[in-house]
Amino acid sequence: MIASRLQQFLAQNHTSYMHTVHRTAFTARSAAHEDHVPTKCMAKSVVFVADGYFGMAVLPANTHADLHMLRESLGAETVRLASEEELANLFPDLEVGAMPPFGNLYSVPVYVDERLASQETIAFNAGTHRDLIHMRYRDFERLVDPLIVTFARKC
Fold first, then answer.
1. Would you identify the CATH topology of the domain 4-154?
2. Which residues contact 126 (CB under 8 A, 6 or more apart)?
3. Which of 53, 71, 84, 148: disulfide with 79, CB 3.0–4.6 Å?
């Protein structure tokens, strides 16, 4: 099931997307495999804390977030990953670890790695470990208005 906040936002903005359901997968790579999506097009959301403020880093599933690069890109003094408890508090209507890359719906700024920004289409968790949304990247960018930065390294 798509998170209701996300579903309403997409409907209000007349956004075209496709919803698919797969077996439970706890990583973006596994979800991509289950749904037959190229890992370079599967967006994973990583929530971090930079200088005391939350942010959402969105990157392809075939990469990992380099926190040193992210810190430099943001001009921050410190960057760390958010804890599961912090995730549960920030996103109470979502399964922990299945956040869609719409941090803007939760007052969390979104930063997209340039590798993902170059894709025509992307797929991402829709709030559960079973549901994916597929949409054009340019529609996602229009709705979220993320800052494009470099912080991902190939796995």
1. YbaK protein (3.90.960)
2. 1, 2, 3, 6, 19, 98, 100, 132, 133
3. 71
Reported as a single tens digit per residue, the pLDDT across 58-67 is 999 999 999 9
| 117-127 per-residue burial string, b: 16 or more CB within 10 A, e: under 16 | bebebbbbbbb
pTM exceeds 0.90: yes
| All structural domains of the chain with their residue ranges | 4-154
Number of other CB atoms surrounding residue 132 within 10 Å? 27
